[in-house]
Amino acid sequence: MTDTHARPRRRRRRILRITLLLVAVLVLGAAGAGWWAYSHLNGNIDSVDLDQAIGVDNRPPKVAANAQNILVLGSDSRAGANADLDHGDVSGARSDTAMLVHIPEGRAKATAVSIPRDTLITRPECKDRAGKTVPSAKRVMFNSVYSLAGPACVVNTVEQLSGVRVDHFVEVDFAGFKGLVDALGGVTVTLDKPMSGAKGGLKLDAGTHRLNGTDSLKFVRTRYGYGDGSDLGRIGLQQQFMMAMLTEIKKQDALGNPARLYKLADAGTKSLTTDSDLASLTALSDFAKSMKGVDPDTMETIMLPVAYDKVDPNRVVVAEPQAGQLWEALRKDQKVPASAKDSPAKG
């Protein structure tokens, strides 16, 4: 005689087994997708071991132990995906933008010092990307160091110029910058006077504008169509845009939204090079979280004090004693005095 109650029990057990199997598949699938995403983003990041590339004995000592100094580089390479974003007939790559960002102990504010690309400096002896020695040279343009010897030599140059230990460096090229802005859905900037669009630049009326990635790239690279048309004037636009971008990230709570954070990370890491200590998604994430207290409203932007060169007025040289005062304040994690912000060449 058939147990009529056994069949429903067997059916329920079968349904339960199928349900558990489906849950297991979903969990494993999610874990696999998470691992794929992590590996994908990790694989996007290129890195450089600064101590190995520069030499431990060639670097200045760390004075303020709990402060952080990050060198941010914008590369103007036309290679790969960058070629579609700028059609200038330029070979190689230069550090089109260079900012040393100082974050003091407590990490509640920050100071960003822009180094003009046309500054004549003494380049220290460096190793290039292939490990070949590049000799020291005097009166070379700051932005030529990157094209000749790569980012580690730029870090070395900044450290020798300032005496400030660079804890980390981050380099983003054209495509990475555009991707970051587009992942945010654009960035809002306000102009107090029109931008003319001279020499293929961006044309904007005075007022507030929401810029996509392509137009943002044109904005930060505009030189001849705004202000005095100098590289020093362009630094003001770059600093303004950096503040606007940080404000957008804060407004969207991009670091607290996993989906948006992944989108930003995917866009940013595609064209990202860092020092080896930051060269993983975990390290970048931990570092970003530690910076969460930095408010764009309290961030200070400064241009390295420079003066017009007496031999070539189209170039600038580091102005003293202002620059020395600025670097000393950053080294010792102290407030930058007003006198250290007075650049003879203003742009």
List the helices and strands and how they pair.
Blueprint: H1 6-44, E1 46-48, H2 50-54, E2 68-75, E3 95-103, E4 111-114, E5 119-123, E6 126-127, E7 133-134, E8 137-141, H3 144-149, H4 151-162, E9 168-173, H5 174-184, E10 187-191, E11 195-196, E12 203-204, E13 207-211, H6 213-221, H7 231-251, H8 258-269, E14 272-275, H9 281-290, E15 300-303, E16 306-308, E17 316-318, H10 322-331
Parallel strand pairs: 1-14, 2-9, 4-15, 5-17
Antiparallel strand pairs: 2-3, 3-4, 5-8, 6-7, 9-14, 10-13, 11-12, 16-17
Helix pairs in contact: 5-6, 5-8, 6-7
Describe it.
It is a single chain. By secondary structure, the chain is an alpha/beta fold. Helix content is 39%, strand content 21%. The strands form 5 sheets. The protein has a 7-stranded mixed beta sheet, with helices on both faces. A 4-stranded mixed beta sheet has the order 8-5-17-16. The protein has a two-stranded antiparallel sheet with strand order 6-7. Strand 16 and strand 17 (316-318) form a beta hairpin. It is globular. The termini are far apart. The model is unreliable at 25-38 and 78-92 (pLDDT under 50).
The number of helices is: 10
**Computed structural class:** alpha/beta
- Name the overall outline: globular
Topology order in helix (H) and strand (E) letters: HEHEEEEEEEHHEHEEEEHHHEHEEEH
Number of strands: 17
Rounded radius of gyration (Å): 25 Å
- Low-confidence spans: pLDDT under 50, at least 5 residues? 25-38, 78-92
Overall pLDDT level: 83
Largest sheet: 7 strands, mixed
Helix content: 25-40%
